[in-house]
Amino acid sequence: MKYYQDITLLPDAESALGFLWQKIYQQVHIALVEQKVDDQHSAIAVSFPNYGSKGFPLGNKLRLLAKEKGQLEKLNLARFLSRFEDYTHQKSIQPVPESTSHVAFVRRRVKGQARIEKDMLDKALLWSKKSGQNLELCLQQLEKSKPQIKQAPAFIWMESLETKTRNPMGSAKFPLFIERVELPEANEGLFNCYGLSAVRGEQIVSVPHF
């Protein structure tokens, strides 16, 4: 990644930072989908320079990165954020500094307690049916390997455009969990259409962090 553009979110008394992230990141996602290089990938990445901030964990700054300046110019993010001019400050496209560290921002799928309990019951029912054992006994045995709920990473509420198209009356909102991973070196590759690092086996695509 050779070029970047920073967008600072500007909350006020009526529009909290978390609410702005929902609106701004949804527009960024739409922009990346429009410029995607194949069905599932983007050549443009996002990063969160202030990830881990107190208050809202993603901080108040979004950074877009690309190999070529022309890719960010073609994206023309200002067009997608025109309705939010009072709530964002977009800087000009700049070259990435020569000396940076390397991180990845990856999507994590986090199970809540209700989902874990349902999965456990489904497994116990299947085991009980196959083995002929009592359901309660199967549940007790599975309890030993029951997943523990860990502290969830930062997330943004998003709206699935595909789900909304299929079912206009249903809920299309979901939490997009985002985790930062420290990396010892740069790994090149593509990103998903949320701008997050794609994972290829054990290798995670990196972005410069500065």
UniProtKB/TrEMBL annotation:
GO terms for biological process: maintenance of CRISPR repeat elements. One of its GO terms (molecular function) is endonuclease activity. Transmembrane segments: none annotated. InterPro entries: CRISPR-assoc_prot_Csy4, CRISPR-Cas6/Csy4_sf. It holds the Pfam family Cas_Csy4. It comes from the Bacteria. NCBIfam families: cas_Csy4. This is Type I-F CRISPR-associated endoribonuclease Cas6/Csy4. It comes from Oceanisphaera avium.
